[in-house]
Amino acid sequence: MASHWTMPPMAHPMYVGQAAQSSVDKADSEAIKAFEEELETLREKLAAVETQTKRQIEEINSRLDRLDGLARDVEALRDERGEDREPNYSTAPVERAVMRLSERLQRIEDAVLPPDSGGNFFSRLFRRG
Q1: 20-57 confidence digits (pLDDT tens)
Q2: What gap in Å lies between CA 126 and CA 99, rounded to an integer?
Q3: Which residues does 67 contact at the CB level (< 8 Å), separation at least 6?
Q4: How do residues 90-109 score in pLDDT, each as one tens digit?
């Protein structure tokens, strides 16, 4: 008498159609082979891109080295000539000249124009502020 807890022999996973499993295994192996071929193609493309990128980086590094060398040469030339890194120009002499010119023009206006003419044309041109 069979117990109701046992499985019938054909329903057990060990007895499931092995022919069906082999056809699935064959389809899986073909898919795996196709994926491996695609993976190999992608690896080759990646290696080519990596080689090209390394070459470009080396070229950029050589250009940067050349640029650094040129910058050092420019600094050496500046040091030889005694130039400051940032030139400091002053506008004070120009401001003094404009002030003197403004004062002279004011005196000319006062001497030439009548007092009620409302002159001060030149003083308005050189007004500060």
Answers
A1: 555 667 778 888 899 999 999 999 999 999 999 999 99
A2: 8
A3: none
A4: 888 889 998 898 888 878 87
Q: What is the CA radius of gyration of the chain?
A: 47
DSSP 8: P
Q: Distance between terminal CA atoms of the chain? A: 118
Closest to 111 (Cα-Cα) out of 65, 16, 119: 119
- Quick one: tokens of 96? 């003094």
CB contact at 8 A, 106 and 124: no
The angle subtended at Cα 19 by Cα 16 and Cα 24, nearest 5°, is 95
- With 0-12 / 13-18 / 19 or more C-beta atoms within 10 angstroms meaning exposed / middle / buried, residue 117 is exposed
